[in-house]
Amino acid sequence: MIQNSKLTQILEKDKNGKPIFNLILLEKTVVYVPTKESYDELMRVCERGGLKWAGGNLPTKNTNNFRNCFGEEICINLDKTFSRKSTEGKIKVCDKSFYQKKGYKIISPQEFYNAQNPKITPEILKEVNEYFERIKN
To answer: Is pTM beyond 0.90 here?
Structure first.
């Protein structure tokens, strides 16, 4: 949940000070993240939005394995439905051509952030990134 003011948007925090918000998962849509920076930022947003990988890990864990496997063709599947209930609402990953063949809509991280209600603004991204930088050190 985001509280609005005229000057800034402030993310709600959990009891440990972690920024939190709800993400809207899109139907038959994947997010194309060709750079490490765009990938890392999306994973941070997904983690703070309460998502996990289909295998149960947090989005910011094991990130290099997926980047090494798919490289610049990596797409993150944030589809709101999967065929099995056990993976419903979980993140999946594959290369861009796989999703193109399956007829998925491929969008940029910015398009995903703009599809949220409220939108994930640069200020919100900054707050999320600052939180992860703080806990890393």
So the answer is: no
